[in-house]
Amino acid sequence: MEKLAILGGTPALPKEAPKELFHWPIITEEDEAAALEIIRTNNFSGTDITTKFQDEFAAWQGRRHALAYTNGTMSIAAALFAIGLGAGDEIICPTKTYWASITAAQWLGATAVFCAINNKMSLDPDDLERCITKRTKAIMVVHYHGYPADMDRIMEIANRHNLIVIEDVSHAQGGLYKGKKLGNFGHIAAMSMMSGKAFAAGEMGMLVTDDTRLYERALAYGHYERNNESFIKESEELKPYFHIAIGGVKGRVNQLCAALGRGQLKHFDERTAEIRRAMNYFFDQIEKIPGLSPLRVDESTGSTMGGFYHPHCIYDPAAFHGLSVKRFAKAVMDEFNGTAPCWDGSNYCLHTHNYFKTFDGFHLGKPSRIAFADANAVPEDDVTPSLAASVEVHCFSVPWFKKLNKEWIDRYVAAIRKVVDQHEALLEEDDKSEQGGRWYGATNEDVQQKKKN
Ligand SMILES: *Cc1c(COP(=O)(O)O)cnc(C)c1O
Prior knowledge:
alpha/beta; Aspartate Aminotransferase, domain 1; Aspartate Aminotransferase, domain 2; 7-stranded mixed beta sheet; binds pyridoxal-5'-phosphate
């Protein structure tokens, strides 16, 4: 048996894989022509192309309104403003997600309350009611890495407590939960379309809702040029504040990205279907390995993973003699030989970041997260057992195949199997360091490394 690459053997993969295996987004000549047209006519700042894209996206999503923003972060901020989140309100968010799912809440004076994740890295409905208090106004649901959250149970709890549900669909456009499109469960949904995402169109965000009042508030928040009587017809409350963005931000997308979005949308369903064929072929094999459980759904239930955004696999150290996921992932990465990453941990749990513990953005002498909170109502996140357990859900990223190329996918399976079969050889130098992670693209180690250089 060939020695593991991390121990000096020959890597399982060669230095290069076929480009189309991972290349994303797919850009055609039609996309290039659409982009050039915007550049040549200097039509960045209008809304004619954006409006077309919004209409097409709303029709595709199956929602009455769609509104495009500069990025996903802005679309989420607009959604939180739209629902009327304000000082002292609480909003529940799964602890394991990208920061932008919830950071805007605290600038509205609201308190982020973190909910545990289950063994699918998804908001755990069993922990949800612990988080609800008389101040709770909304739940932020994230379909993390494309895995559809348990919407039946979440909506049942939300309805019983009369809570607003927002979906962050940044990882899951086009995904289904029991036959219904993600983004169509809550009162409002928002999502990223930045260049690294499953729906990749430069830098853009999108908000969708059926509720015209929420739509008008979202429009007024950051689309100043449409905060007027031509576009806002129903919301009397907004009328005294026409012509200035009431969120104080310029949030509409530039039309270069809207043009790219139109092109992506045309082919999105067929391209993500190909991704699902590839990922399901890959995960069918990985799933047979004891200790590894791919983050995926059983498609016979009518649920799907959309474009499988940065796919992950849950890792059980007990199945590998306690080998840390960090060392396991590093060994796999070395077998991949630079053709694909294999990171341990995904995003860190948000409740562990100082931003939510100590940052005092309002200069009120207390953390912004609880600036307007009833102190008794705020759980002590560090000592909450379910949140402590969330940190211990181990995972690593796997290659994000865009094409069903069985021969090449088999080689990646073989690379992972090689590490699985020889994992005992990794135990000796395993320093048992904790699962790593990222707040965004960079790991803490990257940051430390940069500081050293
Ligand atoms: C990327 C991302 C966002 C923010 O989107 P941007 O377009 O980067 O501003 C929000 N939520 C999640 C879950 C994300 O992954």
